[in-house]
Write a structure and sequence with these properties.
By secondary structure, this protein is mainly beta. The chain has helices spanning about 1-10, 25-30, and strands at about 20-25, 45-50, 65-70, 75-80, 90-100, 105, 115-120, 125, 140-145, 155, 160, 165-175, 175-185, 200-205, 220, 230, 240-245, 255-260, 265-275, 280-285, 290-295, 310-315, 325-330. Helices cover about 5% and strands about 40% of the residues. The structure holds calcium ion (CA) (2 copies).
Length: about 325
Amino acid sequence: MIKVLLPVMVLCSFCSSAGAQVLTIAEARVDSDGDGIPDLLGETVTISGIVTCETTLFSTSGYSFYMQDATAGINVYAYEAPGNMSPGEEWELTGEIKAYNGLTEISPASVDDYSYVGNPGIPAPIQLVRNQPVSEVLEGMLVAAGDQGLTQWVTVATDPSSAGGGYNFDVWNGQTIIPVRVNETTGIDVSSVSAGNRMFMIGIGGQYDSTEPYDSGYQLLPRYQSDLIIFNPSVGDYFHLDVSGNPFAPARGETMQIEYGGPQGVHFNLTVYDRVGRDLAHLAANSPAGDIFNWDGRDDWNEFLPMGQYILMLEGMSSEGDRLTTTETVVIAAPLE
Ligand SMILES: [Ca+2]
Ligand SMILES: [Ca+2]
């Protein structure tokens, strides 16, 4: 008897209540041959994950939403979904693995294919580091572009343009472009977004790539208006120059954050000099207001400055002709190999 019972017990430790084996989402979407097509395409699998948006948020008909576990995220595309399914809840579901323009989907056939697990809450978004793109491993996952805690934003590169049931625009994450796709179904208003805006953004990693091998077309899909935070820095009215992220290695994609400001009516020059007093980079010239920005270590000729020490000088000229100056020493470091 024991010989018969043991394998059953072992099997059941991998089983759901319904008896199906539960795969991690990474296992469900695995592409071991790297052809951009899920290896389990057409097969029916069971996964368990936390829902990160309303079930109808990304659909014009039926249901299109995203769920994720600790390993990966996935699009759920279905004609039926439980009406009481809410963001932050964990559900187990069974469905067929499909692919749509590079996007891996799981497609449950009916409401019977879902079962409620619990309510752990929406997971914290995965923070993109500077220069990091949205990529296959982030597809279906909640992602943050721009880090509010570090005051490190993304910069809108293009004005939103209307395209097929939504809006597209690009943002720079450091020196990497991230395409943003705002679906009309989300109700997000992009009228206040324009090129040059600094933003902190949250969205789901998406993909729309109509050609093999489905390795491009990654995009960020904001869910709500609150996923798009436009950053309008307040720089204070006292004469000051502050830097953070110094030393930094521009050749490694690092930047230094610079903040400067002063009383109203003051115009600013912000200049990088080398140790013998040559002016190499004019970061502000007769600017009528302070600013916060990230300097990438390039000079006026768009070349990276060589490693070494430099002087950053802020000069303020008041309307009465008074001149204020302050300096910071800046160190450009070598990239670590
Ligand atoms: Ca494959
Ligand atoms: Ca994909």
